[in-house]
Design brief:
The structure is a homodimer. By secondary structure, chain A is an alpha/beta fold. The first copy, chain A, folds into 3 domains: 44 residues, lambda repressor-like DNA-binding domains (434 Repressor (Amino-terminal Domain)); 128 residues, 3-Layer(aba) Sandwich (Rossmann fold), CATH 3.40.50; 134 residues, Response regulator (Rossmann fold, 3-Layer(aba) Sandwich). Chain A is 46% helix and 17% strand. The first copy, chain A, has 14 helices and 12 strands. In chain A, helix 5 links the parallel strand 1 and strand 2. In chain A, helix 1 packs across helix 2. Chain A is elongated, with a radius of gyration of 26 Å. Chains A and B meet through helix 4, helix 5 and strand 2 of A and helix 4, helix 5 and strand 2 of B. The structure holds a DNA duplex.
Chain lengths: 341, 341
DNA sequence: CTGTTAGCGCCTTCAA
DNA sequence: TTGAAGGCGCTAACAG
């Protein structure tokens, strides 16, 4: 059924080597022969067997992606970008979904052990030193997406800047008492520092205009609406509660909004809320937030990996993509602004 | 670096054939030899090269998944189930994301052309007759998930029953005027008939208790909140508007809720709304809905495919998974129930 | 420029 | 029960 390179060679009246050469774009073929081979390929509807090719080449021609929280919309969006660029290449995609720490360990171990990928895209987590070392020993070209770190090239967001933008947006509205809720800085021990960077941005924005960093305004809790809700309630119980809250993820922003509603606070009159991510529901719930170019990180990360794979370069390249403030209905001036002035 | 079957053979003092035999669990090996080989494998940390294996076997040992709307939470959940069971097998996973009709055509064509998969999982769409024929000719074992049809084995939901349950839930609350909004019955020409089945369930439930099927209560529109919103407004403008609406997807239910809000209708006092799917936000928005076991369809579909691949059976097997009514805050008795009685 | 041939690593006969 | 050898389809080195 499926024809082989031999069939093509026979049909075109040439040797298999020649067919292989035109297949791989070698310039050492006369135009005439090349044409003969091309028509043979077309006539026979020949498609090279990738496995034979890989075996012979000693390459896997596949890119692995290891990503946690596979179900989160933000991750899916990145995967879409990755899939999109890989679809037009000879590379296959191999997805490793990490849901637990054990699974993470096993994934990294398997990847180097089975040697089934030439390149690896690590999404939203930072390989630790040991993992990085093994990856390099196994000669697996690695690029990180949505995480900083020192070992590999990366495509990331400037989370410090994003955190600063969010905070400045609130400051520009007239807020002085600004709360901050985020996930734990190194959530799940997965080693992503985006949360911390957003916090640093928050801090720097406040410091820049001489506002105090008040520890009672700063909270970390698991990445869920529910936990954010509980923590927001503690904000409201403060003698001098914040008039605005910057949540380091939209999901947590929703928790804050829910708590506000339960407390009878109107948004944005009594409380402003700004999130981070701009996931799909955020527009629906009218949340002001920081948008990051999710799809784009997937695309650029993959292109970067492909580039490195092709060039063999080993300089570490860092691409930083910008964030945008998306202003919707959950932020406004604080209620008592006019009274104070 | 990576050791080969030859290294193992030499180390164990046997021939490569023997190593291959223990690798593949042949019984034609003495226990003693088997042990020798096993320790050799362990000592050398040997892992067989899958590509060589595949080439030799003439099998791809990979499962393809073709799925539309890759970004929808419901699809992601199914993929999770698929990935989960495949992770413990020798099979690789190859995902084809369909976003347009052209892409769909190309995917099906490529899959048979390149012959890169042994088995195929088709999610939420029904292969048409031509596609089915080609798949069979190419000897690609296929299982459908979340779609009915006659060509292949499948794991699906009983959407008729689900539609009936949704409608009966409304009826039990005392509603007699029940609207129905769904996607087009064959949306995007992708050939999924779940929408139609939900409608059939709706119709049967009404008929069962002698309620009329009123065409002005039935609307189809693109799968989006916005379009559902517009259509809901047309419901409300009716001289005798429905007191409850069954939306065939949660997304559309949100559109109905939004319209109700704009119209000043209180939910569930003035209008009951029930959705379908139980996607993640639904709990947050307190939507009563029909839950379907998404992850489970992925798991069972994959297991079914693996089973067929192993047995070579060609009887068409259909697995139907149940749905559940998840009652939350958007359904209640109609306002005028007490007046009427 | 082109044909021939030796692997790539594994599985599977075929003898022994 | 086991070893040796041929072949899966392709690439690359070698000779011409």
């Amino acid at each position: 059924m499926a024809s082989t390179i031999k069939d093509v060679a026979k049909y075109a009246g040439v040797g298999v080597g020649t067919v292989s050469r035109v297949l791989n774009g070698s310039s050492l073929v006369s135009n005439e022969t090349r044409e003969k081979v091309r028509t043979a390929i077309r006539d026979l509807d020949y498609v090279p067997n990738t496995f034979a090719r890989r075996l012979s080449l000693g390459k896997t021609l596949t890119i692995g992606v290891i990503a946690p929280w596979f179900t989160r919309p933000s991750v899916v969006e990145r995967l879409r970008g990755i899939e999109q660029v890989l679809a037009d290449t000879q590379y296959d995609l191999n997805i490793f979904n990490i849901e637990t720490i054990e699974r993470r360990k096993r994934c990294f171990a398997d990847i180097v052990r089975y040697g089934k990928v030439d390149g690896l895209l690590v999404v939203s987590i930072i390989p630790n030193e040991e993992e990085a070392k093994k990856l390099k020993e196994a000669n697996i070209t690695t690029v990180q997406i949505d995480a900083r770190g020192y070992f590999f090239s990366q495509v990331a967001i400037d989370d410090i800047n994003g955190g600063m933008d969010a905070t400045n947006h609130l400051i520009a509205k007239g807020h002085k008492n600004i709360g901050f809720i985020s996930d734990y800085f190194s959530s799940n021990s997965l080693g992503n520092n985006s949360q911390e960077h957003r916090f640093i941005g928050y801090k720097q924005a406040l410091e820049a205009i001489g506002l105090p960093i008040r520890s009672e305004y700063i909270r970390q809790c698991p990445h869920s609406r529910e936990m954010a809700r509980q923590n927001a309630h503690e904000f409201f119980a403060l003698p001098d509660p914040p008039t605005a809250v910057f949540a380091a993820s939209d999901t947590q922003a929703f928790g804050v909004m829910e708590a506000a509603q339960e407390r009878g606070l109107q948004i944005p009159k009594d409380l402003s809320v700004i999130g981070y991510d701009d996931i799909e529901i955020s527009a629906y719930l009218n949340l002001t937030t920081i948008r990051q170019p999710l799809l784009e990180t997937g695309i650029q990360g993959t292109e970067l990996l492909l580039r490195i794979l092709a060039s063999g370069s080993d300089v570490i390249e860092k691409i930083i993509l910008p964030t945008d403030v998306i202003e919707r209905g959950t932020t406004g001036p604080p209620r008592n602004l006019n009274i104070e002035n």
